[in-house]
Amino acid sequence: MATSSLLDYGGNVTKGLGRITEGIMTSGKGSYVEYDDGRKMLDFTCGIGVTNMGHCHPKISKAAADQCMNIVHAQCSIAFHEPYLRLVKKLLPLMPDPSLDSFFFWNSGSEAVEASLKMARTATGRQNIITMQGAYHGRTFGAMAVTRSKTVYSAGVAPLMPGVFTIPYPFWHQLGGKPDMTEDAQVAQCLYQLELLLAQQTAPADTAAIIIEPVLGEGGYVPAPAAFLQGLRAICDKHGILLIIDEVQSGFSRTGKFFAIEYSGVRPDILIMAKGLANGFPLSGVVSRKELTDKLATGSMGGTYAGNAVSCAAACAVVDAMQEENVLANVNARSEELFSVLKALKAAHPAHILDVRGQGLMVAVEFATPAGPGATLDAVAAPEGQGLGKTLASRVAKKCIEKGMIILTTSVYEVVRFIPPLNITAEDLAKGAQIFRDAVEEVVKEG
Ligand SMILES: Cc1ncc(COP(=O)(O)O)c(C=O)c1O
């Protein structure tokens, strides 16, 4: 079917949505997507960390298709449905702490964030929420209020939900440091800022929760040091504050563990998941301990499509496929290969590449570019006239797209993020790494 004439209707789609590629995406299989003009592209975005098991994974798509012929909409306030309870059964043993035993499912990550905030306020009887500089939790009003990655998400739509306070994330940029700033120094500074915040701005008795991504996503792909997460846990325990761990992007094997929080051994009070949970079918989840969720009034949670049967059936198949295919082993092997290429590239271009970081297959390369935010204060911003071109990250990403690989930038800094499928082959990973290397070489030459 010729789809190109449909492009005319693109003008009838809101300008509020942005897009990084031209044309119409018509199909996807494994690590590749195809466009109606015949382009076949290697997908290093996974639709922003969603199709972790590759596009149209046969087992996952079949589970969804079978469920479509059984029941599609068994509304969660009308009855339980079988895939919902089967998913709970499959997820229980995978939780990063055995205390996490009470689930509810939604559609999007933002909705799950909203539900977690509502639950934290209900369970503690306190109002205030502490979030992280650089955090991204979504675009709905509560989620937007705890988002600190870019102003574009909330500019011009205030007032947002009140009662939100911010501390820096242990990310050298936010502390006026350089990429070699020690983890200990970053952790100490950030925990100190939290202590100050609790002494000067939001009394512990008014503070319901701290919400954090264990790997900062939209803020720049920065894994939080274990000591920071452990420090947050200790402060939460001391003051009866709930710790909300947002694993919407970092969860489901993305970082080389089933959940990224496992690297720290920290127990979340509330854990949020979405994206990779159902490999493209809209599904998110909130899990906490029964003692907390029992404080919710019956009927205070819910939604028309929440925990859809087709999405839950797909999610069950995701868990099975991840285990059967031993995906964690692949993530860790491919991660090592990717890091070795990127580190060599950094060594070859020390003036242009500031940092290579990440966990598992949630990996970033940060470029040096003049005139980033706070450039006059930023210890790593390169002064104009030193031969470094502007907007290196978006230029590299654009070149990758021209060369047949979709890849995203992230944050207000010059960061390209790698989110390849978790079951990608060594061959496709090497191909993507080569495309990136070529794109960097060309952009460096162009200046
Ligand atoms: C860490 C994190 N939390 C929440 C969200 C919001 O999820 P959604 O876009 O499904 O509403 C995202 C989306 O990118 C995310 O990365």
From TrEMBL:
Cofactor: pyridoxal 5'-phosphate
Keywords linked to the UniProt accession: Aminotransferase, Pyridoxal phosphate, Transferase
InterPro entries per UniProt: Aminotrans_3, Aminotrans_3_PPA_site, Class-III_PLP-dep_AT, PyrdxlP-dep_Trfase, PyrdxlP-dep_Trfase_major, PyrdxlP-dep_Trfase_small
GO molecular function per UniProt: identical protein binding; pyridoxal phosphate binding; transaminase activity
Aminoacyl-tRNA synthetase as UniProt keyword: no
Keyword Transmembrane: no
Coiled coil: none
Domain of life: Eukaryota
Family: Belongs to the class-III pyridoxal-phosphate-dependent aminotransferase family.
Protein name: Acetylornithine aminotransferase
Gene source species: Roridomyces roridus
